[in-house]
Protein backbone atom coordinates (compact mmCIF):
# COMPACT_ATOMS: atom_id res chain seq x y z
CA UNK A 1 0.00 0.00 0.00
CA UNK A 2 2.90 2.39 0.70
CA UNK A 3 4.28 1.64 -2.76
CA UNK A 4 0.92 2.58 -4.28
CA UNK A 5 0.88 5.85 -2.33
CA UNK A 6 4.40 6.66 -3.55
CA UNK A 7 3.05 6.70 -7.12
CA UNK A 8 0.45 9.25 -6.04
CA UNK A 9 3.05 11.50 -4.40
CA UNK A 10 5.51 12.37 -7.19
CA UNK A 11 6.78 15.49 -5.43
CA UNK A 12 8.09 13.56 -2.44
CA UNK A 13 9.54 10.86 -4.66
CA UNK A 14 11.33 13.45 -6.81
CA UNK A 15 12.70 15.05 -3.64
CA UNK A 16 14.10 11.68 -2.52
CA UNK A 17 15.73 11.13 -5.90
CA UNK A 18 17.19 14.61 -6.18
CA UNK A 19 18.36 15.20 -2.62
CA UNK A 20 18.63 11.73 -1.07
CA UNK A 21 22.26 11.17 -2.08
CA UNK A 22 23.30 14.47 -0.44
CA UNK A 23 21.54 13.67 2.88
CA UNK A 24 20.60 17.33 3.54
CA UNK A 25 18.78 16.41 6.76
CA UNK A 26 21.65 14.39 8.25
CA UNK A 27 21.87 15.15 11.96
CA UNK A 28 18.40 16.72 12.03
CA UNK A 29 15.88 15.34 14.54
CA UNK A 30 12.23 15.66 13.55
CA UNK A 31 9.26 15.00 15.82
CA UNK A 32 6.08 14.80 13.81
CA UNK A 33 2.43 14.87 14.75
CA UNK A 34 0.12 14.37 11.81
CA UNK A 35 -2.57 11.85 10.92
CA UNK A 36 -0.69 8.50 10.78
CA UNK A 37 -1.83 7.34 7.36
CA UNK A 38 -0.22 5.62 4.41
CA UNK A 39 0.46 9.05 2.89
CA UNK A 40 2.17 10.15 6.10
CA UNK A 41 4.24 6.98 5.92
CA UNK A 42 5.57 8.17 2.55
CA UNK A 43 6.45 11.54 4.12
CA UNK A 44 8.25 9.85 7.03
CA UNK A 45 10.18 7.57 4.68
CA UNK A 46 11.19 10.63 2.65
CA UNK A 47 12.47 12.47 5.73
CA UNK A 48 14.50 9.39 6.68
CA UNK A 49 15.80 9.02 3.11
CA UNK A 50 17.04 12.61 3.35
CA UNK A 51 18.97 11.73 6.50
CA UNK A 52 16.68 12.83 9.34
CA UNK A 53 16.11 10.98 12.58
CA UNK A 54 12.33 10.86 12.97
CA UNK A 55 9.87 10.12 15.79
CA UNK A 56 6.13 10.26 15.15
CA UNK A 57 2.79 10.56 16.93
CA UNK A 58 -0.68 10.90 15.49
CA UNK A 59 -2.53 14.19 15.80
CA UNK A 60 -5.90 12.46 16.09
CA UNK A 61 -6.98 9.49 18.20
CA UNK A 62 -9.38 8.24 15.52
CA UNK A 63 -7.48 8.72 12.26
CA UNK A 64 -4.50 6.39 12.70
CA UNK A 65 -4.24 3.61 10.15
CA UNK A 66 -2.69 0.91 12.31
CA UNK A 67 -1.12 -0.89 9.35
CA UNK A 68 0.65 2.32 8.31
CA UNK A 69 1.97 2.89 11.83
CA UNK A 70 3.15 -0.73 12.00
CA UNK A 71 4.87 -0.51 8.62
CA UNK A 72 6.85 2.56 9.65
CA UNK A 73 7.66 1.14 13.08
CA UNK A 74 9.01 -1.97 11.34
CA UNK A 75 11.61 0.22 9.61
CA UNK A 76 12.96 1.33 13.00
CA UNK A 77 11.25 4.71 13.18
CA UNK A 78 9.57 5.14 16.58
CA UNK A 79 5.83 5.59 16.03
CA UNK A 80 3.55 6.34 18.96
CA UNK A 81 0.08 5.97 17.47
CA UNK A 82 -2.79 3.54 17.26
CA UNK A 83 -6.44 3.94 16.39
CA UNK A 84 -8.66 4.51 19.40
CA UNK A 85 -6.10 5.89 21.84
CA UNK A 86 -7.58 7.31 25.01
CA UNK A 87 -6.98 10.99 25.66
CA UNK A 88 -4.40 10.05 28.30
CA UNK A 89 -2.63 7.74 25.84
CA UNK A 90 -2.73 10.45 23.18
CA UNK A 91 -0.80 12.86 25.39
CA UNK A 92 1.64 10.13 26.46
CA UNK A 93 2.27 9.33 22.79
CA UNK A 94 2.76 13.00 21.95
CA UNK A 95 5.29 13.39 24.76
CA UNK A 96 7.09 10.20 23.70
CA UNK A 97 7.49 11.54 20.17
CA UNK A 98 9.30 14.56 21.57
CA UNK A 99 11.82 12.62 23.66
CA UNK A 100 14.90 11.88 21.58
Automatic annotation (TrEMBL):
<dbReference type="InterPro" id="IPR020082">
    <property type="entry name" value="S-Ado-L-homoCys_hydrolase_CS"/>
</dbReference>
<dbReference type="InterPro" id="IPR042172">
    <property type="entry name" value="Adenosylhomocyst_ase-like_sf"/>
</dbReference>
<dbReference type="GO" id="GO:0005829">
    <property type="term" value="C:cytosol"/>
</dbReference>
<dbReference type="InterPro" id="IPR000043">
    <property type="entry name" value="Adenosylhomocysteinase-like"/>
</dbReference>
<dbReference type="Pfam" id="PF05221">
    <property type="entry name" value="AdoHcyase"/>
</dbReference>
<dbReference type="GO" id="GO:0004013">
    <property type="term" value="F:adenosylhomocysteinase activity"/>
</dbReference>
<protein>
    <recommendedName>
        <fullName>Adenosylhomocysteinase</fullName>
    </recommendedName>
</protein>
<dbReference type="GO" id="GO:0033353">
    <property type="term" value="P:S-adenosylmethionine cycle"/>
</dbReference>
Amino acid sequence: EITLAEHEMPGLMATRTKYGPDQPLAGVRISGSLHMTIQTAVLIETLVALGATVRWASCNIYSTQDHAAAAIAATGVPVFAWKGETLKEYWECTLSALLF
